[in-house]
Design goal:
It contains seven helices and four strands, in the order E-H-E-E-H-H-H-H-E-H-H. It starts with a strand and ends in an 8-residue tail after the last helix. The protein is α/β, with parallel strands linked by helices and 148 residues long. The relative contact order is 0.21. The radius of gyration is 14 Å and the shape is globular. The chain has helices at residues 7-11, 49-62, 65-71, 74-77, 82-94, 113-125, 137-140, and strands spanning 2-6, 21-24, 40-41, 100-104. The longest helix is centred in the middle third of the chain and has 14 residues, at 49-62. Strands 1-4-2-3 form a four-stranded parallel sheet.
């Protein structure tokens, strides 16, 4: 099964390798994150630098994570490279035998690309995923774009 976690969950040992495989899926490697706490860092599963910058700027002006996500139409803009889809396929396969955690900075319950990745893993590769906090209907309407 694929689940989500925060960088903070890993750094504080609330989630450890005993709980499952841990993959950080951020554009930039998290400061102070010890590499021995995780199984891998996969920037190919992160939003593009441009999308991340646009999101961060809007989040700063609105002072609201979820409002920024919606204001910049994140679900319409998020994309993965062929390499990113290949890595997600590998994670989906791994999740058949182990619990896999996708990790970034967003709080659980906030809109987040982790959940979009989980939707892709379920739809494209048949992965079992944990319950999502949001429906992501706009992104779901784009799933056909990822069936390359």
């Amino acid at each position: 099964m694929i689940r989500e976690a925060r960088v903070e969950d890993i750094s504080s040992s609330r989630i450890t390798k005993r709980h499952g495989r841990i993959y950080v899926v951020t554009r930039f490697y998290p400061r102070y994150m010890k590499k021995n706490l995780i199984d891998g860092y996969i920037s190919d599963l992160a939003p593009s630098k441009e999308l991340l910058a646009e999101f961060k700027e809007r989040e700063k002006t609105l002072d609201d994570h979820d409002a920024a996500f919606e204001a910049i139409h994140y679900e319409k803009k998020f994309d993965l490279s062929v390499e990113g889809l290949a890595r997600l396929s590998e994670i989906a396969e791994e999740s058949r035998h182990h619990t896999v955690y996708l990790v970034c900075h967003c709080a659980i319950g906030q809109y987040c690309h982790r959940e979009i990745l989980m939707i892709l893993a379920e739809d494209l590769f048949g992965a079992k995923i944990a319950k999502l906090s949001h429906s992501y209907e706009t992104f779901r309407s784009r799933l056909h774009e990822f069936r390359r």
